[in-house]
Design brief:
Elements (H helix, E strand, L loop, with lengths): L2 H8 L4 H23 L16
Length: 53
C-alpha cells in the first residue's frame, strides 16, 4: 500500500481518530530524529581509531 493510499484511507476516519493517528506519526518521526541525534558513547562502531566520535 502506497503512502497516498494510506492518507486517502485516513480521510475515512472520524476527526478524533485522524488527530490520534497524526499524533502517533508525529511522535514516531520525532523519536527517529532524536535517536539520530543521540549517539551511544560506548558504541565502538561510531568511534574512529583514536577513540574520538
Amino acid at each position: 500500500m502506497q503512502s497516498a493510499d494510506r492518507l486517502q484511507a485516513l480521510e475515512n476516519f472520524d476527526n478524533d481518530d485522524q488527530e490520534t493517528i497524526i499524533k502517533i506519526i508525529d511522535a514516531m518521526v520525532i523519536k527517529k530524529r532524536v535517536e539520530g541525534m543521540v549517539q551511544d558513547p560506548f558504541d565502538k562502531k561510531k568511534q574512529d581509531v583514536d577513540g574520538r566520535m
